[in-house]
């Protein structure tokens, strides 16, 4: 009745921002992501008659504010397994949460894999992805390995993520630059609801499918410049929707803005590097492995960069044998 899973957050290269079904968390467009090797969420779940209520502990703190969302997810899994048992959940991230590094993607992926196994459910990768999506949309992309696509779909059964290329298809590296550990003031799940209030939302939607097709082609061809140009423009496109939603959402800090300009400058000086940013100030910079040391060296001289995490593209969520309690 006790299981532990490990999952990696993913970074979306083509982003999910806006939902056509709030309750089922069906996005208005497809997205593409990669799992990040050095960042992990480890989660142990135990269901037992000894617990009279669900206990949730994340990063050594008992969770009250966000506990509802976790408990709702446990309810989904209990209902599939027809179990009345309460659970103890302990979860640990090895990276800052609430700063734009997608801890909810790895968090709900690890919770889904651990809790369903603890209740004896034998779910396929597709079923796990569908389930994880209902906890946090992007979590469905942390279930499969490598380069992942979450296709646009009209029903819950069809809205899941699958691997489109294995981890070792192309040695692209995602270097995370932590510019501050301050938590975002508007959670992503609230921000998602505002997307459609932006006057630019419809224009963004019209470009999504062709962007996805084009990006997949550049990944297939391992064409880094074309790949980088698309992902950076896509991040700015999503942030244009955020900036112009009502109320407006500004997820950047001064460090984020400075770093975006710095990456562009390094490019003019000959370093092929491109950024992407989610809901928070921390910044992802993508380079090919052969250029990673140059980027990291440059970042080490930037005063407002507090920490750098070099990630390769990794496998998906999986069970492990070492429990947290
Ligand atoms: O899955 P959510 O609700 O945490 O939303 C993720 C939103 C972005 O990170 C900005 C984009 C994405 O596709 O991951």
Which descriptors would you attach to this protein?
325 residues; alpha+beta; Ribosomal Protein S5, domain 2; Alpha-Beta Plaits; 2 domains; 6-stranded mixed β-sheet; 8 helices; binds (3R)-3-hydroxy-3-methyl-5-(phosphonooxy)pentanoic acid
Write up what this structure looks like.
- This protein is α+β, with helices and mostly antiparallel strands.
- The chain folds into two domains: 2-168, 2-Layer Sandwich (Ribosomal Protein S5, domain 2), CATH 3.30.230; 169-311, GHMP kinase, C-terminal domain (Alpha-Beta Plaits, 2-Layer Sandwich), CATH 3.30.70.890.
- Helix content is 36%, strand content 24%.
- It is built from eight helices and 16 strands.
- The strands form four sheets. It has a six-stranded mixed beta sheet.
- A hairpin with a 4-residue loop joins β3 and β4 (26-27).
- α1 (67-81) packs parallel to α2, α1 (67-81) packs antiparallel against α3 and α5 packs antiparallel against α6 (224-243).
- The model has no long low-confidence stretch (mean pLDDT 96).
- The protein binds (3R)-3-hydroxy-3-methyl-5-(phosphonooxy)pentanoic acid (PMV).
- (3R)-3-hydroxy-3-methyl-5-(phosphonooxy)pentanoic acid (PMV) binds next to α4.
- The site of (3R)-3-hydroxy-3-methyl-5-(phosphonooxy)pentanoic acid has 15 residues, from α4.
